[in-house]
Amino acid sequence: MRCCNRTEDPSAMPRPVPARNAAVFSPLDAGAAPGGGELPVWDLGDLYRSPEDPALAADLQAAETEAQSFAARFAGKLTGMDGAALAAAIAEYERIEERLGKAMSYAQLVFSGDATDAANGRFYQTAQERVTAISSHLLFFTLELNRLEEAELERKFSGGALERWRPWLRDLRVFRPHQLSDEAEKLLHEKEVTGRGAWNRLFDETVAAMTVAVGGEELTVSAALNRLTDRDRAVREAAAKGVSEAFGGRVRLFSLITNTLAKDKEIIDTWRRYPRPASARNRANMVEDEVVDALVSAVVESFPRLSHRYYGMKAKWLGLPKLQHWDRNAPLPEEDDRLVPWPEAVERVMGSYANFSGELASAAKPFFDRPWIDAALRPGKASGAFAHPTVPSAHPYLLLNYHGKPRDVMTLAHELGHGVHQVLAGQQGYLLSGTPLTLAETASVFGEMLTFRGLLDAETDGRRRRAMLAGKVEDMLNTVVRQIAFYRFESRLHDERRKGEIAHERIGEIWMDIQRESLGPAFEFTPDYSVYWAYIPHFVHTPFYVYAYAFGDCLVNALYGVFQEGGVPDFERKYLDLLRAGGTLRHKELLAPFGLDASDPKFWKRGLDVISGFIDEIERSDV
């Protein structure tokens, strides 16, 4: 199921993770909030009341009956159907897929609420197996569609009825050259639950059950990572060493998971004839390999003027000859320590959204009026934050772990952007509402920028303003520099895995090489940092996902620059149209109304110049 996520450490963001039984864990159980009050907890009853809800069993049974009937009526017959009949078949396929999507979304959300609960794990696995078995009856449809010749398919468009589905068929046919035989495709589909899916679950349950020893306390991984932003350097160091010890003690397991999944990917990529490990992800993102290469090259070339320059300044501010890895997200001396209560965070974010667009704020308001957000802190809950779109016939849900820090306010702005995007794009329907990962970050990063700019413009104190700018720069470096570093780490790891299994020590060496290259000479990395690759879920769940954050951040930087310059008439309307488009348009079509083109090398420089400009402003204030 589709989902966008970021982890507690802003440098390691995202993936689809799943929530909790609404019948057991209701909004009345809202957790205590930093700064006082209570944090919201979602109610999944808009999907199903509980895993035992008869409506869930009825939906799965109906989907199975419908899928079998669908296969009996259409398998082997698409060639002879006219455009109107094929359009009706796709609409029926969408209805069945949405029914399955609703059930699977609920299972994912139940699991993410407490992955340590064995009952939740069994429910999630059982749901995956049932949905996989049912969807096997539907697998023929997309395979057979892709076997249609281009001229034959184009003739079916002539009547006009099929035109609505052109974007979906366009994106489906990107994978046509990589499609295997029907038997091979069915085997891969059905084995997913005992292959990649099983390794994903092992990773999730292992991390959720882990505790980290920090200063005599036993913390969850999420809570320990949060300590890496503590003002007290001794606390940061203790948390960093605790995380190292916790993951280091299980590094052979994480190495086995990583090696197995990398080999699994190599086997499938070879059969599907993808030219390199990242190509499958690029196809799914509807972006050319060359565009991603241009982004990566532009960011790597900018390491000296971005991360190297900024962290050199930060070492000076902290009075340190060298930074250690636990100093990377340390607050500045003048940074405000006050915890931001949840109601104030909501007010800040909603105010910024409303100042840009009343319609955008109206789409965001239901998330706070209704129990669509889970921000409480509790053991077993998925770390980080995500927005899960579920299905258009329902609504998205947001998961956060709200500690009350300024970065948590930005995370709320980020995930709310995803949620609003998903609501607006949902008008396109289940098959057309999903966006490639490269575009899925547009609304989230734009929401962060709106919130940050609103706060910065209201700040008159020079020292606090510098601290705010520095915090934003760090978030942008985490989103752009760190994510491209992660992408380069993955690329090297997958390339090397093709020569044989990689020892965990060697994985650590690759990780450390990339960290030194990306973060620069201001850092002196201690050996214990070599295991930090192990906690990043993207490497397990969505290989090569990470560059999408850099893509999205640079895209939004360029987009926001156009907005500030005021050179595009009706910017608000065009921006909302971009969100409503969902997956119907590709990046070139979406950016054209703003005069932007991601295939132009200057596009990436424009986005990176925004980060450099913020650093310039900090330098001017640091005299």
UniProtKB/TrEMBL annotation:
Q: Where is the Peptidase M3A/M3B catalytic domain?
A: 230-608
Which positions fall inside the Oligopeptidase F N-terminal domain?
144-211
Q: What CDD domains does the entry give?
A: M3B_PepF (cd09610)
**Pfam families on file:** Peptidase_M3, Peptidase_M3_N
UniProt-listed InterPro entries: OligopepF_N_dom, OligoPept_F_C, Pept_M3A_M3B, Pept_M3A_M3B_dom, Pept_M3B_clade3
Signal sequence bounds: none
What EC number is given for this enzyme?
A: 3.4.24.-
Name of the protein:
Oligoendopeptidase F
Keywords from the UniProt entry: Hydrolase, Metal-binding, Metalloprotease, Protease, Zinc
Q: Which family does it belong to?
A: Belongs to the peptidase M3 family.
